[in-house]
Write a structure and sequence with these properties.
The chain contains 3 helices and 3 strands. The protein has 91 residues and is α+β, with helices and mostly antiparallel strands. Helix 2 packs across helix 3.
Length: 91
């Protein structure tokens, strides 16, 4: 078997376009998480886990990895009697 090589480069139109980081869709779980955290009352880990059908460790990972590191959002948290630790996105 002989191996054939292409001597001319592929045309520019045939190259794959690089993907850019797109904003999350309004119906995605990440968008729902952001919406919950931007609300005036904020959200607790348990409230987010229940609303998104996630485990608590997944919520913490999404906040620290997906929102904080990747999107660069700034968070605040406070302890509220009867609710526990409530997270907010600082604007």
């Amino acid at each position: 078997m002989t191996r054939t090589t292409r001597k001319t480069p592929k045309p520019a139109t045939a190259r794959k376009a690089t993907k850019k980081a797109a904003a999350p869709e309004a119906t995605s779980k990440q968008a729902m998480l952001i919406e919950m955290l931007r609300s005036e009352k904020g959200a607790t880990n348990a409230e987010i886990a229940k609303a998104l059908a996630w485990q608590p460790h997944t919520v913490r990972g999404a906040i620290s990895g997906g929102l904080k590191k990747r999107l660069g959002l700034i968070f605040t948290s406070e302890m509220i009697d009867g609710r526990g630790r409530v997270y907010h996105i600082a604007d």
